[in-house]
Amino acid sequence: MIYLATANPKKAAELGSLLSGFDVLPRPDWIAEIDETMDSFEGNSVLKAQTIAEATSATAIADDSGLEVAALGDRPGVFSARYAGEFATDEENVAKLLGELDGSVNREAKFVCVITIAFPDGTFSSFRGETTGQIAYVSTGSGGFGYDPVFIPDDGDGRTFAEMGVSEKASISHRGRAIAKLVDFLANSG
């Protein structure tokens, strides 16, 4: 039994599908949202996983992920989910991003994901995945979540993540790459 730390239903569904061979449970309702107080993806991922593992006395998986845009000095980074404000929607975050890139020819970006698995004894392991790409000029596609409608991966065929199916996206996404490392770790740790 492994608890997920995320309260984001779209992220939980994606993680659940990527970890389909494991007994994965959603974060218990009685555990409050965890403030992401660290200044790195790694720090936030470890913080969330250890908090859930300690609260449940069970193994927990957390991820922290975000978008780093070269022309914006790698912003929004760890603030990706709240780029346009504390309770901003995906659409508001995307609108702010596109507004700040208006007129910029440098559209280079990178999605980063750090997945941490924490155990009840306090030990943990973290796995990083990255996908480079470009920021589109307009949102396209209806799949995925977050910045998926404006992120065109370098490893793809010119479509945004939001235009891809779940398994197609997972095969080249930052989260898919981090999860693949986690699954390999779990398979080899007995």
Account of the protein in words:
This protein has 5 helices and 7 strands, in the order βαβαββαβββαα. The mean pLDDT is 93. Helix 4 (166-172) crosses helix 5 (174-188). With 190 residues, the protein is of the alpha/beta class. The two termini are 15 Å apart. Helices cover 32% and strands 23% of the residues. The protein has helices spanning 9-18, 41-56, 90-101, 166-172, 174-188, and strands at 2-4, 24-25, 59-69, 75-76, 108-118, 124-135, 151-153. Strands 1, 2, 3, 4, 5, 6 and 7 form a 7-stranded mixed sheet that branches. The longest helix has 16 residues, at 41-56. It has a single domain (2-188), classed as Alpha-Beta Complex (Maf protein), CATH 3.90.950.
Shape: globular
Outline the biggest β-sheet. Answer: 7 strands, mixed
CATH topology: Maf protein
Calculate the terminal CA-CA distance, rounded to whole Å: 15 Å
Question: How many structural domains are formed by the residues?
Answer: 1
Structural class: alpha/beta
Estimate percent helicity: 25-40%
Q: What's the tally of helices?
A: 5
Order of helices and strands: EHEHEEHEEEHH
Radius of gyration: 16 Å
Residue stretches low in confidence (pLDDT < 50, at least 5 long) are: none
Q: What share of residues are in beta strands?
A: 15-25%
Q: Any idea what the CATH architecture is?
A: Alpha-Beta Complex
In total, how many beta strands? 7
What would CATH call the class? Alpha Beta
Overall mean pLDDT score? 93
Concise structural overview:
The chain is an alpha/beta fold and 190 residues long.
